[in-house]
Write a structure and sequence with these properties.
0% strand
């Protein structure tokens, strides 16, 4: 592998030694334009990844055939009909038993096929989503109108409007100015650089509802800083590079967990809980409950990374390229004085945040607020950007649509509820099951499902309804189980397929699969324990968990 992985994107003749030498000399590691998403090299898959991609397609086909053609209806016969949803009761009244029907089995077969294709990346993720959508239609799980309508889900619109607003930050340079200003003024040493990015991510999380957009904005900045400290990726990996990329990946996701609008998945979870309880979950409610948790976890992540897994040597604490930090000052100076467009962007975002944080009083949804913001940003004359300036990754939108369609399939077939009831019946859990058993089981399942599931949207659509179903079955308030489970949605940083930012930052080649797994699984475990502790203390104080988790305090 080349010592400079970013050389690989250039169109040169590798047999021309002179041209290759000139190309390496021409590459400026401190030029931010070299680290744009479109210029990142395509990372070569490891042997394990290549093997999984090769067998993923056949495994997906085999799993579909085994489930659909070998499983027979009628396996689950011990479900109390009074515990079922309206759709499942309809099935019960129709066929005389609450059990796996042929439609349930079709849903399970499609889900299994989709998971295997997503995990192994045998084909592009958006193509897997398209296959899932048409399969659900052709197998009779969903009617066409319902399946295709998921592309118009309100959370999809929030994502689209978020990318419009993020494009505004990119075009005006406001996000770059803020990040550079903060690093130049507070990033005097290696440790303060990491802490500076923590603050930057918290601020951006309050304004931007798309974690991928945050990653795209910050990537060129922290990659230049990585180069300053000698982290060039490929064969030149060092602990500074591992720290700055993995910590930013962690901050990007966990920062989003502190705000209802931090990602579309958070809003989706709130909508599911509201639909089941009639209780509205507002921006301030979510922030009051989980912002402190997000900040605590981000600081713990900084300590775990820099003190345990990737401690910096004396050399790694010092800049390796003379004048590196001065180059960042030059980049900031190139932006000139703040202009009217940046001021308009700042005012618009502050207004959006004010609207989000006061939703309890005016009742306008976060999606509608983002919609209004995007309309104002695009208005001719007084607006800030044109449509051609907007960068919307439609392949990610199609990927999300597939996850939403799967969720619609689960709701239509009631598969999660039927499965939950069957499992608890089989295990013999009765009405006297302790709250802590349910809390620990559900939060553990949500947290560590990141080992298997590719989309946090899909995890939301699976585990929030399960938490709602379990709460209803055992007579506990839905909020007490579903909301703590929802607070774990953003723990998607352990493996490259966990989230779009994880996949994007893995392409920087600044860390290995082992690096991200050992740091990620540790923080996942810590995140779970913090969630349990908060369930016993802070969440109980707020009235989320009525008696705490264990009832100790």
């Amino acid at each position: 592998m080349s010592n400079n992985t970013f050389d690989e994107h250039r169109d040169i003749d590798p047999t021309n030694e002179k041209e290759l030498t000139l190309d390496k000399q021409d590459f400026d590691p401190l030029d931010m334009s070299n680290y744009k998403i479109e210029k990142l090299p395509k990372r070569k898959k490891s042997k394990v990844e290549a093997f999984l991609a090769k067998i993923g397609g056949p495994l997906a086909i085999i799993s579909f055939i085994l489930i659909y053609f070998i499983f027979k209806p009628g396996y689950l016969l011990h479900i109390d009909p009074s515990k079922l949803s309206e759709y499942a009761k309809h099935v019960y009244d129709t066929i005389g038993a609450a059990e796996f029907t042929r439609i349930n089995i079709a849903m399970l077969a499609i889900f299994s096929m989709g998971i295997l294709l997503w995990l192994t990346e045998a084909i592009p993720n958006y193509l897997t989503s398209l296959i899932i959508i048409i399969s659900l239609v052709l197998m009779g799980v969903l009617p066409e109108k319902q399946a295709y309508a998921q592309l118009g889900h309100k959370v999809m619109w929030l994502n689209i409007m978020s990318f419009v607003l993020a494009s505004m930050l990119v075009k005006t340079g406001l996000a770059k100015r803020f990040a550079l200003w903060f690093i130049v003024h507070f990033g005097k040493h290696s440790s303060s650089i990491f802490l500076s990015f923590m603050v930057i991510n918290i601020v951006l999380s309050a304004f931007i509802s798309a974690t991928t957009a945050k990653a795209a904005i910050l990537l060129p900045i922290f990659m230049v800083i990585a180069a300053v400290y000698g982290a060039r990726g490929g064969d030149n990996k060092n602990n500074f590079g591992r720290n700055i990329v993995l910590q930013n990946l962690f901050y990007i996701n966990i920062g989003a967990s502190g705000f209802l609008t931090g990602s579309g998945a958070n809003l989706l979870a709130a909508a599911l809980i509201t639909g089941a309880t009639g209780i509205n979950i507002f921006f301030t409610d979510w922030m009051k409950a989980n912002f402190i948790v997000a900040v605590l976890l981000m600081f713990i992540g900084y300590l775990v990374a820099t003190r345990i897994f990737f401690p910096l040597s004396k050399e790694e604490r010092l800049p390796q390229i003379p004048g590196g930090m001065e180059r960042l000052k030059e980049e900031l100076e190139k932006l000139g004085k703040i202009n009217i467009q940046e001021i308009k962007s700042a005012v618009l975002f502050i207004a959006i945040l004010a609207m989000w944080s006061t939703d309890k009083y005016h009742g306008i949804s976060p999606t509608a607020v983002a919609f209004l913001g995007a309309v104002i940003a695009l208005l001719p004359g007084i607006g800030i950007l044109k449509w051609n300036d907007v960068d919307i990754p439609w392949h990610l939108m199609l990927f999300s649509a597939g996850a939403y369609t799967l969720g619609a399939g689960f709701k239509q077939t009631d598969l999660p509820n039927i499965s939950v009831n069957a499992i608890f019946d089989g295990l013999g859990y009765g009405a006297d099951t302790p709250f802590w058993v349910l809390y620990l089981s559900l939060t553990f399942a949500m947290a560590f499902s990141a080992l298997f599931f590719q989309s946090k949207t899909m995890r939301t659509m699976i585990f929030i309804p399960i938490a709602i179903g379990v709460a209803n079955r055992f007579g506990y308030p839905v909020i007490s189980l579903a909301l703590p489970v929802a607070f774990l949605i953003e723990h998607v940083y352990m493996l490259p397929f966990n989230s779009k930012p994880a996949a994007l930052l893995y392409e920087t080649d600044q860390y290995s699969l082992t690096d991200t797994f050992k740091f990620g699984v540790t923080m996942l475990g810590i995140g779970w324990f913090v969630n349990i502790f908060m369930g016993e203390t802070w969440y109980r104080f707020l009235g989320i968990t009525p008696h705490g988790v264990f009832g100790i305090f």
